[in-house]
Design goal:
The protein folds into 2 domains: 7-102 and 228-400, 3-Layer(aba) Sandwich (Alkaline Phosphatase, subunit A); 115-223, 2-Layer Sandwich (Alpha-Beta Plaits), CATH 3.30.70.1250. The chain has helices at residues 39-46, 52-57, 90-97, 115-125, 139-153, 177-189, 232-238, 249-252, 268-279, 295-301, 306-326, 377-386; strands spanning 7-13, 28-29, 32-33, 78-82, 157-159, 165-171, 201-210, 213-216, 221-224, 243-246, 260-261, 287-293, 331-336, 355-360, 373-374. The protein is built from 12 helices and 15 strands. The strands form 3 sheets. The chain has an 8-stranded mixed β-sheet, with helices on both faces. Strands 5, 6, 7, 8 and 9 form a 5-stranded mixed β-sheet that branches. The chain is globular. Its cofactor is Mn(2+). Mn(2+) 1 binds at residues 14, 338-339.
Length: 402
């Protein structure tokens, strides 16, 4: 009989891949295949990575890392997981983690959004759209380039990336946050499944500051499509278990299957604070706590900043003792990712990679490295633990966590 855990705490280090996937040659960054990408590996190799707590849990046992050694006596079980779905974006990765198989990738707009869509947005908002920004763009570069113009004219900065997203950047002193959210809600309503322009996410990107010193704020919000089927989150919720979200998890699943949200993170360390508050809730005696830490992806991966990415991982490593101490004896901690975003790679897009799987429980007796699995093995294991229906795909490894 497999060991059962009362509570599962699942942390997604957004974009912290751990080596090129077998099909990396079929995914591209500026026409360069993702072959050779390795987010954690290249950070360790090129700028060093000092993560003693991750090392103790077995991160160095997953694959060869220059500055994270393997250990003969890990505190946790570890492996790497391969993506089955056709995509390397946030929604595809998260949805697969919770048991969905996304066979058809979301449409992307490498040449920008069509004119008729922009005209609809203009008609609704009463604001013009800056056409020159309408293309794949770095989120910080686009406000540096067009923020001054927006401050003068009140026009909308609409841009995309290599992901299936439409992003609207708006200076909070020019286009108030409430107005930006209403515009994004409208765009979401006309880009749903079955529409002419189906999009995975509409992202509100508020910012403040003056030309030459713009800064994006924590008022970001993602307006995502609802998952294309029931996930293990739905099955847990239907069975009456608490399903608690931290960070952008609620947005990624459009709230489906989540019955308590701890809110958006100001930054990753605030996300850890929110996680610890959730762990201490008096009515959270069983169920799932699901956390996304986005800074690694948004602030450092896309901006190709390996030093900042390293610091973000090390900051989380420094908080692991707090998280582990706050766990009950029959709790399970899983730390993983949703795709790669190698900050040493060409372009600014996500990279098609394996993701790490590191787990810990105070009750483990024989932690070791595990065979390679798939993203959805996480939700299959969670479903098996709580005796609820699994997702479309995935194989439980609960019996291996002894």
């Amino acid at each position: 009989m497999p060991k059962k855990f009362k509570r599962v705490h699942l942390i997604v280090m957004d974009s912290a891949g751990i080596g090129e996937a077998p099909d990396a040659d079929q995914f591209f960054n500026q026409k360069t295949p993702d072959t050779g990408a390795n987010t954690i590996g290249h950070i360790s190799e090129k700028v060093g990575l000092d993560v003693p707590n991750f090392q103790k849990l077995g991160l160095g046992n997953i694959t060869a890392l220059k500055t994270v050694a393997p250990t003969d006596s890990p505190l946790g079980y570890s492996t790497k997981l391969e993506e089955v779905s056709q995509g390397k974006d946030t929604m595809t990765g998260h949805w697969e983690i919770m048991g969905l198989d996304i066979k058809n990738p979301f449409p992307v707009y490498p040449d920008g959004f069509p004119e008729d869509l922009l005209e609809k947005i203009e008609a609704f908002s009463g604001r013009k759209v800056i056409r020159e920004a309408n293309k794949p763009y770095s989120g910080t570069a686009v406000i540096d380039d067009f923020g001054p113009r927006q401050m003068e004219t009140g026009e909308l900065i609409i841009y995309t990336s290599a992901d299936p997203v439409l992003q609207i950047a708006a200076h909070e002193d020019v286009i108030p946050v409430d107005e930006l959210m209403k515009i994004c809600e409208y765009v979401r309503s006309i880009t749903l499944v079955g529409s002419e322009w189906m999009l995975g996410r509409i992202i509100a990107r508020p910012y403040v500051g003056k030309p030459g010193n713009f800064e994006r704020t924590a008022n970001r919000r993602d307006f995502a499509l609802a998952p294309f089927g029931e996930t293990v989150l739905n099955h847990l919720d239907d069975a009456g278990y608490p399903v608690i979200s931290v960070g952008k998890i609620h947005d990624i699943y459009d709230g489906q299957g989540i019955n308590k949200d701890m809110g958006h993170n100001l930054n990753d360390m605030d996300g850890v604070d929110r996680m610890l508050k959730a762990m201490a809730l008096p009515d959270f005696k069983e169920g799932l706590l699901f956390v996304n830490l986005v800074d690694m992806d948004a602030k450092f991966g896309h901006r190709r900043n390996p030093e900042g990415y390293r610091d973000a991982i090390q900051d989380l490593d420094g908080r692991l003792p707090e998280i582990m101490e706050a766990m009950n004896d029959d709790d399970l901690l899983i730390i993983t990712a949703d795709h790669g975003n190698d900050p040493t790679f060409v372009g600014t897009d996500h990279t098609r990679e394996y993701i790490p799987f590191v787990s810990y429980s105070k009750s483990f007796t024989t932690p070791q490295a595990l065979p390679i699995g798939n993203f959805a093995d996480i939700s299959a294991t969670i479903a098996d633990n709580f005796d609820v229906k699994p997702g479309e795909i995935g194989k439980s490894i609960l019996a291996d966590l002894k």
